[in-house]
Write a structure and sequence with these properties.
The chain is mostly beta strands and about 80 residues long. It has a single domain (about 1-80), classed as RNA polymerase II/Efflux pump adaptor protein, barrel-sandwich hybrid domain (OB fold (Dihydrolipoamide Acetyltransferase, E2P)), CATH 2.40.50.100. It is built from no helices and eight strands. It has a four-stranded antiparallel beta sheet with strand order 1-8-6-3, with no helix packed on it. A four-stranded antiparallel beta sheet has the order 5-4-2-7, with no helix packed on it. The chain is elongated and about 40 Å long.
């Protein structure tokens, strides 16, 4: 099976200027399931859990807890298998 890398990017959370990456629930090397919560983002209005779009392995964490991030910014990368 072929393995591919998926960039985990900040989703569109509306018109918030300030988005904070509060906490990662995973670390590099962790196996994750589709739908598993990977991290939590907070705006001035609400908290948003970010779920894994696929089953795979977390390969890299780029942004850390406490970092301010923008829409479409790469937060981390995961590897998944293509069937």
């Amino acid at each position: 099976m072929e393995k591919k890398i998926l960039e985990l990017k900040t989703p569109d959370l509306g018109d918030s200027d300030k988005i904070e990456l509060v906490k990662w629930y995973v670390k590099p090397g962790d196996k994750v399931e589709e739908g598993q919560e990977l991290l939590e983002l907070v705006t001035d209005k609400a908290a948003f859990p970010m779920e894994s779009p696929k089953k795979g392995i977390i390969k890299e964490i780029i942004k850390n807890s406490g970092d301010l991030v923008k829409k479409d910014e790469i937060l981390g990368r995961m590897e998944f298998e293509v069937r």
